[in-house]
Amino acid sequence: MSARKHFQPIAQRLSKILYRIGFLLMLVIVMVYAVLSYFDVAENLHAQLVSLVQEHRPRLSAALWDIDPIGITEEIDTLSAVSSVAGLVLTTPSGARYLRGDTNETAKELSYTVELMHKSSVIPVGSLTLISDRYEIWKQVAYRVFPFALAQLLFVTGLLFALQLFLRKVVLRRLDALTIHTHLLRPDHLDTAPPPPLFESPVRDELDNLLQGFANLQNNLLHQQQQRGQLIHALAESRDQLEVEVAQRTDESFYLSGFLQLLSKDAARYLSMPLDGAKIGLEQTLKETGQLMGLDALIAIHFADDSQKGDICFWDKDDKKIRTDFNLGKRSLFQLSKKNLDSLSAFVMGIGGDLPDESDEAALCRDLHLTQLAVLPLDFNGERLGLLFAGVSDQDRVCSELEMRLLPLVAGLCSNVLAHRRQQLSLKEAKNALLAANTQLERLTRHDALTGIANRRVFDERLEQEMANAIRDQQPLLLIVLDVDSFKQYNDSFGRHEGDIALQKVAAVLAKFAERTGDCAARIEGNEFVLLLPNTDLHVGKLLAERIRLAMIKLGLVQEDGSALTISQGLAVYSGAEEISAANFLRMVDKALYRAKRSGNQVQVLESISDQGAGKR
């Protein structure tokens, strides 16, 4: 049996125990009260019998002394009529007996016997026995016990219910809160687990102290966990700082050799690096170079030009960020550095000295918490591409002569990378422009310039292709040729511009009916259009043609006289079994179109193309 089946709420267990104890105590009390009531009733009945005997004893003794049967009978009948007397036995000295009521099994009945004495005799004139049935005793006991038991039941039930409510309010709420809290509390969720609720009450007990203890324990564990994380972070920072210090204390020759190897490796890497990886590669170079030289920051500023936006590639030892309001498209940035670089190949400036607070260089130092900046130009073929800033945060640290000789090598590598990237961007833009021009040219050669749907060239190719597919797949091919009725009159009335708009609307309607793969809607000349629908039989073709005719009317285009601008259509289906060329097939459908145009706004169907006498393909 699983542990889950052994679980029983403490509220249920406490309720069962309280009710058992309460009802057991009630049963004991009722039983004690019943016993006491029994003896009290028996004593009262005995006292009644004694009282009756004392009351009737003189008259009954006189009747026996006088041997008065009538008097004896009257006294006996009077005694037996009393409700507490169940039976009566009167015995005379001669042995005569007078019986009344139930006198059998007297051993089981409560009785009282007395000798009857006459005042004129010293010898008893008889004996009288009064018998009371135990049923009367139990009856009176029941009359006493049942109300008492009911009162006790109501009292005990109310007391237990009140006690249960008290336990639920004082004990069980706290136990439930403690259970929920211990269920949610996990070592890895100390910061997200809610603290246990603390209940307000005029007095505190052990459960309140336990809840407070769990809350304090959670806070202490969370605090210790945070201290441990801070200690680990501090140890990691100390380790990084120690590694930088060890790198700074290496031998100068080894330092120089590693620096040159780094630049050589990066230069070789840039030769095969894609365009989108240039910035990442440059930032990696700045990071590796800065760490090797023991700098705190290296920033390469690439100025904007006509072909590309400006950019910033930087590395900071502590991953600080540069403010986002530097607009690299403005040439007015870093004017102090540009002015000094007109006469110097490189220079160093510091906060509080020759670096004004309002300059962009000072803002850069404040963003990255730097105290000194070494500034070098990024030039390529005499053109200023940008600036290179090497920064340190220690005010007492001075860039050595070796570092000032090595930084131009870094600047030269950055200049070459930026120039190469700019050339690649220019080539990419030229390539994209060429591809766009080719795409546009291809589109113009395959689409009608006015309506945007396919032109005559595409339609001829698709007609040849789909007729071959119809022969191969034995699937019907539907061709609809349509012409705008009285279009010249429309052009003359409203002008060429409105005529072009009308043709564009007709093309848009046809395009909606050519949405499947393989469908083709095209303008083949002037106001004549075609719709080529593979795998479409003649019945469906007639329905589509009628829908196209109605859709044209719904466009709301009207002639000058108010009549609707309509279309005429000719259609036929090529089943793949006829031997006919694409040109002849189109010519035959044109004939159906001409028949439709005689009356206008109608559809003429070429029922069979095999009987038209077309030439073979």
TrEMBL record:
Annotated Pfam families: GGDEF
Transmembrane helix recorded as keyword: yes
Protein name, entry field: diguanylate cyclase
Domain GGDEF: 475-608
NCBIfam families hit by this protein: GGDEF
Entry EC no(s): 2.7.7.65
Superkingdom of origin organism: Bacteria
Chemical reaction(s) catalysed: 2 GTP = 3',3'-c-di-GMP + 2 diphosphate
SUPFAM superfamilies documented for this protein: GAF domain-like, Nucleotide cyclase
Transmembrane residue ranges: 21-39, 145-167
Keyword annotations from UniProtKB, A to Z: Membrane, Transmembrane, Transmembrane helix
CDD domains, sorted: GGDEF (cd01949)
InterPro entries (UniProt xref): Diguanylate_Cyclase (IPR050469), GGDEF_dom (IPR000160), Nucleotide_cyclase (IPR029787), Rev_trsase/Diguanyl_cyclase (IPR043128)
PANTHER family registered for this protein in UniProt: DIGUANYLATE CYCLASE DGCM-RELATED (PTHR45138:SF9), REGULATORY COMPONENTS OF SENSORY TRANSDUCTION SYSTEM (PTHR45138)
Origin organism lineage: Bacteria, Pseudomonadati, Pseudomonadota, Betaproteobacteria, Neisseriales
Organism: Iodobacter violaceini
